[in-house]
Amino acid sequence: MISRVIQMFVDYHVHPDYSDDAEGTIDEYCRRALAIGLDEICFTTHHDIYSPRRGIDMVAKVRRRLKKMNPNWLESYFDEIDRARKTYLESGLKVKMGVEVDYYTDLEDEIRNDLSGYPFDYILGSVHCLDHICITHPKEYLKYFKDRTASELCEEYYSALKEAVRSGIFDVMAHLDIYRWYGTEYYGEEALSLYYGLADPILDLMVKKGIGLEINASAFRRGDNEPYPSIGLLKKGMQKGIKVFTVGSDCHRITDLGRDIKRALYVAQKFGISVHTFSQRQVERTF
Questions:
Q1: Which secondary-structure segment (H or E) carries 221?
Q2: Half-sphere exposure of 88 toward its Cβ, with a 13 Å CA cutoff?
Q3: What is d(CA 165, CA 109) in angstroms, rounded to the nearest whole number?
Q4: Which residue, 233, 235, 244, 253, is most buried by CB atoms nearer than 10 A?
């Protein structure tokens, strides 16, 4: 029988107000983390400085004031996290510096160079945009979906994801089937099952590269009964030999911090998945 005792309560996908679509300072998140009993919080602000969507996205935001294309925002980000580490050390809260990076094949070198030299604990890779259209944005997804079948969507998504994994830039891949965000509503259940075959080479490459898989709890907030990735994809990843898994709420506001993480952890327990934390881009703890 699976134990429903949660050994650790961690959130490894947290967007403070450095992300353009997020609210809440690093310190405010840390205070909330203590209030809800988190053992560890890992900030993963969006890093799209080199995005070809510069004219669409507002990039790094500091204390709700836009810092578009400010080359020093990463230094500010790290300084705030370092202060939070020291401030909350005695309270027992571990504070980690991470980043979520959208991958673009034509900008791989710029992404790699921009991240080098910073003391990240954790680099989370993701694909939100196809043909420079954000398929998870409420005002953009229709522009992409209306000209493509569910099969074409999945083929293009997994092709982009394969390139992200091939790059070797990332420690863990986020919300592996995020196209479900609006895809299930638009295409129906067909969008849930099309990963068969398409995901296999990506998962094989993740194993070869030693890249982990995130169990993203944000799907539960949208009323789904399964996280990102789906249970089928999660089990397939395990069977392929992926060893490292993290859990994250993908929160963009303080009230969602830690939300449904315990539900994601129960999913991990049910299938015998060990969950991991990171320090200096190496697995630190397993539980």
A1: helix 218-221
A2: 26
A3: 14
A4: 233
Residues 6+ away with beta carbon under 8 Å from 152: none
Which residue stretches of 48-179 are H helix? 73-88, 108-115, 141-145, 150-167
Cross-strand partners of 213: 173, 245
Q: What is the pLDDT of residue 64?
A: 40
What is the distance between the alpha carbons of residues 223 and 219, in angstroms, rounded to a whole number?
7
pLDDT value at residue 97: 97
Q: Tell whether the model's pLDDT for residue 26 goes beyond 50.
A: yes
Burial (Cβ within 10 Å: 0-12, 13-18, ≥19) of residue 219? buried
| Residue from 76, 77, 63 nearest 22 by CA | 63
Domains of the chain, start order: 10-286 (3.20.20.140)
Cα(287)–Cα(274) distance, integer angstroms: 6
Query: What is the gyration radius of the CA atoms in the chain, in angstroms?
Result: 18
Contact 12, 214 (CB under 8 A): yes
| Burial zone of 255 (CB within 10 Å; 0-12 exposed, 13-18 middle, 19+ buried) | exposed
pTM score: 0.91
